[in-house]
Write a structure and sequence with these properties.
Blueprint lengths: L1 H15 L3 H16 L3 H172 L1
Length: about 210
Amino acid sequence: TFCSQWAQGLTAAACIAPNPARFAATACNSTMSELGLGEDAMQGFIRHQVINILQPVAETIQDIQAQLEHFRKDLDLTDGRVASNKSDVEQLERDNLAQRATNKDIKSQLDKLQVEATKDSEELTRTNQDLQANKAALAKLNEKTQHNKAAHEVLQQKFDDMDAMTRLMKRDFGQFDQVFRTHMKNFNQLKDDHDDLHTRHLEHGSKLEQA
């Protein structure tokens, strides 16, 4: 990463920088030689100067190393977060693809449902039309039924009248039969009397011829 490359650059720069101790020793040797001091005194002076020079440098280097270590930890944490985010992004992409496939299936099902709903609506319209036609036919049938009921009541009244008349005629016929029988009896009686008179007339006629 960029941060790792930056840390490596700092390390390389530190490695190629001039050595402060060597630089101080060279300068001090030149100065001591000019002052005519001994070698031990010169080395002690150099050591003291080097320590004074290197102390803040060492502290600075320690601070830089501590900052680099902290920075490396931050980098590791960031890399972990990036890896986690990358994994999450990949999972989101997979979920998105799955969701798209699901949405495609849902859209297909919705299209089928829409077609079925259209068919059901058309069937409902036809059913309503048939229902209205059946209502009209039922109204006509009801009207015809009422008419037939009225006609039946009229016919029933006529039948009742005819039945009453038939009973009356039966009663009158019984009386007529009785009168007819009486008349037949009288007619037969008259016929017998007529035959008797005719026989007597013939007998009288025969006696008159003989006389």
